[in-house]
């Protein structure tokens, strides 16, 4: 049983008596009983929110208590009277007190007076403590507000009293002046002759004094008003808004000038040239190159004039209607943007005409162009819309929400952002063409292969070319010599099809070396060079460089072969170069050979396996393609889901080098390293999943059926890694596993230009005649299978004599044997006659003599082919599809192998020919897929580890996972020797520390500078300071990880956490600039200041020679500070020669035209170099603004990732090459010492102290 609630009865009784005495409301009321039948008269007393009732007014103890907090009190209508009721209900008035919970019955009360009833209701309603607290809070706020008003009034009254006191003082002064004037007037009146003239002059003086007084008072009041407004936030916002508009006007003037040059210096002269008798260009090509250029110029001239008119009416600036004029014309911009790629392609095509190229160079040499090319001017409109978006962002940031222009500006920004997305895609797709044309311009001799728009730029950098001795060998003792580094330094440019090797001439121009244009399809790359015994012992320097060299063997079809040996500056750089070169070689060979292998009667040159896969060129819900092809002749991805990007990375049919580099740069934006690694592991364990189903149907199509199968691809347990043994391929009853294993690797390789035209094998009464007619065109071209592989040291030992010997030994062998299956084995037991009969299904007495007497060199394509039965044309037709499919896929996957033993050169066999059952051939195809999957996984890991080592340095768990996976791969018994070697090389790269450039680190420099005491500026020479400043700038610049360049983290609120290294670089820039300004301002003597300034200018000029453009900008920006720039006396004493150098340096690092002069200087210089980081951050901001990482369909914007990756590629080029500058402790300590550095305010005060302002 629940106990009753206990209350403090004594205190309640006390409160009841207090209510009876001092209650808010007291009196008799009728209370309805609990059974709703009777009314009882009680005496009620209300105290605060408690209602007591007593039996009578004289009772000393309350009978009950009602707590009124949270209740409602309302009048209620009178109940219907019964027929027997005698009392008059008109004199009775009711009201009820309702409580807020369900189980509590309402309290019904009754009075006999309406006024009494209303007073009781009002008193109970206002009895709530909550209402009292709310009223109290309101009163307190009013009280505080009144206190503020009183304080303000006191302040105003104090100011008024001060003004009155000042006025009284002024009045007393004026009274004294008036009294003096009156006395003078009395003296004047005593002399009547001078009264009229003196009186007028005195009145004028009085009026003048009064006028001055009124003007002084007005100016003082107006000055107070103006100063109050200047200090207000609204004025600050408007000031920044005006600055944005003024900078917009300057940028628009520059843009109109660029369009004017484009139209007047190029478009109109070329139109006239197209109308000449011998036109170097047609009118159609002129229209295609300059589509809408003239219209855009007229449009922006109108926009610029309107902007000038708006600024002329300053401070009232109305800009929204200007953008309203611009928005309807955006369709003209869209046409220009969509035509941009075609425009540059037409330009590259026209430049192949020497007359046009000569004429174009003449136009570009005009002074107005300032050494800028035509493609540069054609790209300027592509960057204008992003500039407008940035301007609108800044305008909206300083435009109040209630501003009349805000909605119009937001609408204009949204429309421009839509066009900006299209522009970013077009700029991304045409960037490769513009890069190729820019490099072609830099080469003095020209380079026509760069005018091929299908060339894709991969990388560039400085390498050392080692000269060959007379015997074709190098002396390793010269590798470390300084003379070789100076004489042999080469600028190398790697493209998807060619490698360009140049030397740097005067003025930054490039000159092609002998054999400087190398076609990659003719190349063999040898990474690990082995020194021979007859070479002298190398010195210490050559030992340091022993693993930095690699060899490229070039075997052109129409000239003598030659070898090029290049040396990188570090192991990481060598690994990056060799990875990219090998991947480009694989790409170019796979593309060309697959197209030839799939050539048929209709001359379709696209491989059927790729052509039949619509997912490679048709847009879908999870992928969008651009119009440009990548290095594998497949459409580039514009937008895609993460799953489709990972699928493209592991697609065994091709691997584009540009896609791979972009993916490895940007994958952190949309996924993680663990996801990528898991995908690679999954492809290794289940390689059959790496090929789309539609292509598998083609690949596994039976050789007895010319139509493709549309069902599910054949599923076999051999497609999974859990069965490590290779599939059986029975050639005879006694075939050993070793024999089957070797045969499964015998893949047909077709090289040397043209491939077998299977369509030429038409129906004939004699199958051999048809085959002979098809083979005849290839009799002079012997296949070189070694070209298909990244060669090992074994392949490098093959010479022409060995090849000739092998060919001579094959002749009698071929004469004795028919076209049959032959396998070289060292330990296989001899086969019986039955096995030989099964292994040679084409052995026939009807073989013509004309076929038998041909040497093996004449039949190199078929001499060791798995015997093809040519008994009828129908069987040849049936064999064509299977041969093409297997051959092409073998070609596509074989390129990833790092090498093949020499003895396998002449024993490649066809897996697709007749003579084997279908299930056996499919088993071998599955084995080929497993080999291709292994090569793909190792290839991607090799690129990842060699180019992005910091991923594994910062993530120890990722590094351990990769090592564990590779160790698991190496224990696979099915692994080839070259694959095992590749896995071991990757593990060695992960576990060994790269000695790198042996340069001191930034942490070491900072640690050494902690306890030292800096010497003064005059104790150091300009050369010492320039070298140490360059060393420090490069150490700060080189450690920036490239993931910080994604997402504009340096502009976010938590920038110090997201981009600590970029913020460190910014801080270092500001610290050096402050140090220079402080050093100048510390000098009290003007001559000393001049000497210090001239010394810093000399430091800047030396930094320019050292290619440290960051330091040049640090010094010039410090000289342009207001505290330094205002020192007129100091600048007057600076020599004219120094001022000329300053002007030259400022022009070099000027931000005009998106740092056009600085960009040109970077193109014309060789690393090491320290560029200005802010230039790249501005480019990244242009890309990030208005272009999200994901589309509305949640697809990754891979086109944007490609653009950012290209900028990062240029940054990393300068990060990787270190300076050969020795660290000098004293000079670096001075540069890092911040004890004497002043802040901005202190600098200006010091400037005013040494050269005070001159009063006007």
Automatic annotation (TrEMBL):
GO biological process, alphabetically ordered: Ras protein signal transduction
Residue ranges annotated for the PH domain, each copy included: 22-129, 467-586
Coiled coil: 150-191
GO cellular component: plasma membrane
Comp. bias intervals (Low complexity): 840-854
Biased composition (Basic and acidic residues): 798-828
Cross-referenced SUPFAM superfamilies: DBL homology domain (DH-domain), PH domain-like, Ras GEF
Single annotated GO MF: guanyl-nucleotide exchange factor activity
Gene3D superfamilies referenced in this protein's UniProt entry, alphabetically: Dbl homology (DH) domain, Pleckstrin-homology domain (PH domain)/Phosphotyrosine-binding domain (PTB), Ras guanine-nucleotide exchange factors catalytic domain, Son of sevenless (SoS) protein Chain: S domain 1
DH domain residues: 240-426
Record region (Disordered): 710-738, 797-854
One Pfam family it belongs to: PH
Membrane-traversing stretches: none
Protein name listed in UniProt: Ras-specific guanine nucleotide-releasing factor 1
